[in-house]
Amino acid sequence: MADTPKIVRGVRRSAAAQDFVFTEKDLPAGGPNFLQAFRQNAWTAYQSLPIPTVSEEAWRRTDLKALQPQQFRIPAENAYLDLEPAPAELLRPLTANQHGGQVMLMAGGSHVTLDPEVAAQGVIFTDLRTAQAQHPELLEKVIGKVVRPGEGKFAAMAAALAQNGLLLYVPRGVRVEQPLHSLLWGAGEGLAHFSHLLVHLEEGAAVTYVHEAASPEGSLQAAMHAGIVELYVGPGASLTFVELQSWGENIYNFSHERARVDRDGTLDWVFGAVGSHLTKNFSDLELAGPGSVGKMSGFYFTDHDQHLDHDTQQNHLAPHTTSDLLFKGALLDRSRSVWQGMIYVAPGAAKTDGYQANRNLVLSEHARADSIPGLEILADDVRCTHGATVGRLDEEPVFYLLSRGIPRRMAERLIVEGFFDPIMQRIPFEGVRARFQAAIQKKMQAMGD
Amino acid sequence: MSVLEIRNLHVSIEGKEILKGLDLTVKSGEVHAIMGPNGTGKSTLSYTIMGHPAYEVTDGEILFNGQNILEMETDERSRLGLFLAFQYPVAIPGVTLANFLRTALNARRKAVNPEDKGMPIPEFRKMLKEKMDMLRMDHAFAGRYLNDGFSGGEKKRAEILQMATLKPEIAVLDETDSGLDIDALRIVSEGVNTLRGKDLGVMVITHYQRILNYIQPDFVHVMLGGRIVESGGPELALSLEEHGYEWVREKYEGEAVNG
Predict the structure, then answer these.
(1) CA distance B55 to B128
(2) Exposed, middle or buried, A105 (CB in 10 Å: 0-12/13-18/19+)?
(3) Is the dihedral of CA A429, A435, A441, A444 positive or negative?
(4) For residue B8, which phi and psi values (nearest 5 degrees)?
(5) Looking at beta carbons, which residues of chain A come within 8 Å of B51?
(6) SMART domains, alphabetically (chain B) (predicted)?
(7) Which residue among B83, B94, B111 places its CB closest to the CB of A422?
(8) pLDDT digits (tens, 9 = 90+) for B137-185
(9) A381 within 8 A of A348, measured Cβ to Cβ
């Protein structure tokens, strides 16, 4: 059968029609001068950058054609009061019996609690509005220093338009015993949520911080989130940062995240992603000081038509630095994942040890996982290893479990749980593990339905 | 008492007929040795009993206590009381031996009573430790990923541990002796002998007579060309040890050619 030549008439959409409808009037009003200048610069960058297309390397596998940017509005002040509230279970501590502090970021509002004992240590854990009023010098010192607004359209958008965000500051030598917790709750349809998280640990400080982004399930109309996460781990400091992404499946989610780790600092960064309609996440580890160590452990599980794209970078900028990345993903239905990782070793960063591995388990014929590791080594005397695999559920292990009387669904679930176990072993909290396992179970239960 | 009856079993894999009319009856309390040269269909028999999807039954039947099991899923067959100790147990990374066994045990309980909440963990641990002691397995094994990085002997002991835990009525040991040194063979055999009794029927599938020095069979069968061609008592195994399979081949393959 011969192909009939098809005549395709290009539908030329004007650039204006494709862009968001935000205007300069949407920039948050007030605040100290430096903050206004910061937002103005970000706005300029935002305006100069088009919505990324697949012709850009970083966006090659994530197409925003269906985004319909004009549908998103910035929530009004106190909008959350009329929207679905966050379920109580999301506010329960995930890491211990109680937390040292909790910040809730919602559409047009926020809520902060901090244990007075933690506050007495000089720890600041608050929303951005409070920070700009009470700690302007500190905010000026840290904002925009790790992630620059000009790095991308969505970074610029978040930097310019984030009405709110969070500042965590731990003074020199202070070790916070109780974990801190924040929840970004993005209820509402057709809304654009922005967040800007700033974490700054001075020399010798230590803290565990868990951040969750979530929104109601079952929302029909799209909503979006653009966020920035800036982490600074000072000399000899130690940060454990756990991120749970459980956005509803109506959310387009964009984030630029980077951690800079100074001399002998340690970062343990854990990601878990099960939500959103589409995610494009940039997570960079910058080992800036000699002897710094960064561990990145990621977990994603997609179903339906979810599309999750994680772009990671392990930058060894100083000698004697160590990075260790393990990302594991499972995919159901017609979902798609992309992991694209790069280990970069700068000239002179000798004696570095970089490791990256990405493993994918494709559980459906129509799902697809892309795994693209990369190395760029410009120094001598380094050790860098990487590995990437995309596999399917083998019949032999399933048969083995069936032969012991375990029903097929349970057998498959056991194998998937086993697949994720190496990641679970890297998560230092039972509560977080339990949450991840519950998410796996929920997705597995839907399997084959 | 349980009975496994195999009648006129014909099995093909990828269109090639491997089993060509096999008959065998195993009752609980009995130990049957199935011997035969390589490529004669011994493993096909064990996989077919357990219902592996790659093996297609083209004729005949397999009855368990009078019930045809060929239409049953593998997990149903297991819960009914059948067990296969694999020749090559597969590794399941990330799933500990203990977690796996508890899941298997609880799946059985749940099949009997859908309301069952599962065996309490302390009870399970105590039971598992006892079984592991019987097989001289280090308790740390319970926390290791199933068959992952296990030595040959460890895998076979883990198979017998599963058999001891799941308490089948008819168990098929598929070349459990292969790849075992003499100490491991002795331990595994002692495990089987401990479990042996009026409630358990065993089919020991083997190429060599060696394991039968440790697990004394009541009946010995010789398989050739996809059928059982000779059956007898323990003396048959000794005769095979002494004379090899050549005489069986000559007797039956000659017959096939001439006939």
Answers:
(1) 33
(2) buried
(3) negative
(4) 45, 50
(5) 402
(6) AAA
(7) B94
(8) 999 999 999 999 999 999 999 999 999 999 999 999 999 998 888 988 9
(9) no
Mean pLDDT of chain A: 92
pTM, entire model: 0.88
Model ipTM value: 0.96
Determine, for residues B94 and A420 on separate chains, whether the beta-carbon distance falls below 8 Å.
yes
Q: What span, in angstroms and rounded, lies between the C-alpha atoms of A227 and A256?
A: 6
User: Average pLDDT of A327-344?
Assistant: 97
Among candidate residues B77, B33, B98, B48, the one with its CA nearest the CA of residue B233: B33
Q: Are A170 and A176 in contact (CB under 8 A)?
A: yes
Out of B53, B86, B94, whose CB is closest to A400? B86
Helix ranges, A121-187 (H): 128-134, 136-142, 153-161
The secondary structure of residue A65, as a DSSP letter, is G
The one-letter code for the residue type at A260 is R
Contact A259, A321 (CB under 8 A): no
CA angle A336, A308, A94 (to 5 degrees): 125
B232: its two tokens: 């007898």
What pLDDT shows up at residue A90? 86
Interface of A with B in 360-399 (CB under 8 A): 395-397, 399
pLDDT category of residue B258 using cuts at 50, 70 and 90: very low
**What's the Rg (C-alpha) of chain A?**
22
Q: Which residues pair with B39 in a beta bridge?
A: none
CB atoms B86 and A414 under 8 Å: no
Residue A342 exposure: Cα atoms within 13 Å on the Cβ side: 13
H runs (alpha helix) in A145-253: 153-161
d(CA A267, CA A263): 12
Are the C-beta atoms of residues A231 and A199 closer than 8 Å to each other?
Answer: yes
The band of A8, judged by pLDDT with boundaries at 50, 70 and 90, is low
Cβ under 8 Å to A: B residues 160-179: 162, 166
Chain centre distance of CA A273: 8
Q: Which two tokens stand for residue B130?
A: 């006892």
* b/e sequence B37-76, b meaning 16+ C-beta within 10 Å: beebbbbbbbbbbbbbeebeeeebebebeeeebeebebbb
Tell me whether residues B75 and A421 touch, CB distance under 8 A. Answer: no
Q: How many CB atoms lie within 10 A of CB B116?
A: 13
- Residue B123 DSSP one-character state: H
Interchain contact A400–B (C-beta under 8 A): yes
- Identify the residue among A361, A401, A412 best suited for mutation to test binding to B, counting B beta carbons within 10 A and taking the highest: A401
Contacts of A401 in chain B (CB under 8 A): 92, 100, 104
Q: Is B194 helix (H, G, I), strand (E, B) or coil?
A: helix
The pLDDT value given to residue A7: 55
Q: Where along chain A do its domains lie?
A: 28-52+71-394
Range 126-155 of B in CB contact (< 8 A) with A? 145
Domain-wise residue ranges, chain B? 3-89+168-258, 92-149
Maximum distance among all alpha carbons in chain B? 64
Q: Which two tokens stand for residue B8?
A: 């006129």
